[in-house]
Amino acid sequence: MNIKAFIAVVSSVLKDWRVIVTLVVMLFMMWAANFILKYKKRPKKQKKQKAAAEPAPKPEEKKEENSEAEAKE
Length: 73
Description:
By secondary structure, the chain is an all-alpha fold. It is built from 3 helices and no strands.
C-alpha cells in the first residue's frame, strides 16, 4: 500500500458520519465525567452571631451616682 492510498483511506474514515458522531459523543461523555468528578458543593457560610455587648450606662445614671456620693460627704 502506497502513501496516497493510505491517505485516501484515512480521509474517508475521518469523513464518515459514524466516526464524527462517535467522537462527539465520547467528548461529551468525557466532559460530563470530568465535571462530575471535580464538582464540589460549597457549604453555606453561616453568619457569625454578634456577642451581645453589655449596654453602656446612661449618662443620667452617672450623674445621679456622683450626686449621691457628694451628698454623703
